[in-house]
Amino acid sequence: MSDITDMAGRTGVAAASGEPDALAAGATTRERLDRYVALIGPMAMIAALLLIMLILEPTRYFRLSNFDIILKDAALYMPMAMAMTLVICTRGIDLSIGSVAALTAIVMAYMVKSFGFPWWVAVPLAISLGALCGLVNGLIITRLKVPDLIGTLAMDLAYRGFALVLAKGVVLSRFPEEIVAIGRGEIPGFVAIPVVIGLSTVLVGYVIYTRTRLGRYALAIGSNPEAAELTGIPVDRYKVYVYVLMGAMAGLAGVMLAGKLNAVQATSAPFFNLHVIAAVVVGGTSLFGGRGSIVGSLAGVLLLSMMINALVTLRIEFFWQSVASGAVIIASVAFYTWLQKADRDGSGGLASRLATPEARRMLRFIALLFAITGALFLLGWLFAGETTAVR
Q: Is the pTM of this model over 0.90?
């Protein structure tokens, strides 16, 4: 039976993975290149963003100190994006990660400040609490058969309620230097500590995704849950595993956020879920399961952080970030949904797919979407100074 399940997992990777895989050593050059299609979307958007900023604000945007800010901001989302890639690959979704991050940060803060726990005990316990929250999510979805969207949305409310009850409206601040270092510390002559933590989790996630049963089975489950179960894969058990990993990474993000701000409150991290899901979808992971890319998710996280930083650099109001994120998500989902349809129809390589009338219509729609969004950003940039003067 184990041979059958291994074969099923490998088949899922070969058919649906956005990452290179050693099991597909006999693939042609075109097939190998098609594996990197997931990176086309975010890399093209990053290139376009850099070109725009090179024209509008080259001096302020292209400074090493600014890129350091971008990396630190992206590092906070890297652990969650890695885990969310695996969750979405199984046709799941987790909307509770923001509340889990806030709850674990609140609990860690109380352990350190009220009960005198050393930081090296409080931090692992906070991450373990996040994993426990993920376990609860997984059991609700697999045992009670509650849909992922509804189950995690309900638990998002529950975890946020627990955080509010514990915090009682108090802002907890002034943590030990070691916790602050996790969120914004620097390694002299190297990069920031949160960047090292974030990239390390992405590397671990890449290994899990491409070299372990958890990654292979996640793809097989997302591709066809019924077929995966028939081949002997314990579908429910592996779905619980990915939710536990997701909860643990949300707990880690909560610790990093508390260290970055040197403070935490119950209402912290309200939009973590939308930001992380957006980054993962932009990176090429299909919301319908069975296709994903850890490297693509990393590119998606970097893209969103660069875009937010660009809006700040251009002095455009904070609320335009939501408009930008929405446009990027729509364009990415449209592109990757078309790509999956082309895969199912057997339309050949990427070049032949892009030559079809449907592809040309899709590209025109994406170009129009970004043109409208760009025009709105330009108006926001032109009137930014005027709005500030009125205030």
A: no
